[in-house]
Amino acid sequence: RQAGGFVALGFGRDGRLAVGTCQGVARSVLRVALAQVRATEPDVEVTVVQSEDNVELVEGLTSGRLDVTFLVGPIADRRLSIHEVCRDPFVALLPAGRGPAGPVRLSGLRDTPLVGHADCVCHDMVEAGLRAAGVTPRYVFRSNDNAAVQAMVRAGIGTAVMPLLALDPSDPPTVVVPLDPPLPERQILIDIPADRPTPTATRFVARALAAGADIVTR
């Protein structure tokens, strides 16, 4: 189902679990946690709402449209019970064969065509980090579709600075390289309402935290 800026997926018949997410989480932690829900709670109707806007996701949670949501931190809100799932570093993504042997220096991106996200939390974090390093970004393509960003890098249009979890690691024509100095890592958070957590949402939080711990271990 699709409504406004939301993309939703539903399955099951009895009970409800409405989950908010963003793209990078959907490919990793969310996928693992949802598979466990389907295996152990098959009668729960699950709806997944995707947005790159923290404000939109928090509003969905506080209004009752969502039972639980992932957010990109840091964030503080007394209305929420906030748990850190994992830390997600920013990396440089380059076409295969064109990357340096070592990390990409931030100062070296000053005159580099960049491929990046449109306005969202991750874009703001990248912008702040680059400008702090004295780099005014020169974007040649911007999209909040991670696959589109990676495709433009693969085609040689430019270099991307992206969160590691947002990338498809099975894409051989691109190479992932650390940044020097590194940008502050984004926090992947999972949140439920502080005043009305549901048992289904609470169990989902536990599953997401376990999946995040596994990602950190690997």
Structure report:
The chain is an alpha/beta fold and 218 residues long. Helix content is 30%, strand content 32%. It contains 6 helices and 15 strands. The protein has helices spanning 23-26, 29-40, 54-62, 121-132, 146-154, 199-217; strands at residues 2-3, 6-7, 10-11, 16-21, 45-50, 68-73, 80-88, 90-95, 104-105, 113-116, 138-142, 159-163, 174-177, 179-180, 186-193. Strand 1 (2-3) and strand 2 (6-7) form a beta hairpin. The longest helix is centred in the C-terminal third of the chain and has 19 residues, at 199-217. 34% of the residues are buried. The model is unreliable at 1-13 (pLDDT under 50).
Q: What descriptive keywords fit this protein?
A:
218 residues, alpha/beta, 6-stranded mixed beta sheet, 5-stranded mixed beta sheet, 15 strands, elongated
Quick summary:
With 218 residues, the chain is of the alpha/beta class. It is built from 6 helices and 15 strands.
Topology of this structure?
Blueprint: E1 2-3, E2 6-7, E3 10-11, E4 16-21, H1 23-26, H2 29-40, E5 45-50, H3 54-62, E6 68-73, E7 80-88, E8 90-95, E9 104-105, E10 113-116, H4 121-132, E11 138-142, H5 146-154, E12 159-163, E13 174-177, E14 179-180, E15 186-193, H6 199-217
Parallel strand pairs: 4-5, 4-6, 9-14, 10-11, 10-12
Antiparallel strand pairs: 1-2, 3-5, 6-15, 7-15, 8-12, 8-13
Helix pairs in contact: 2-6
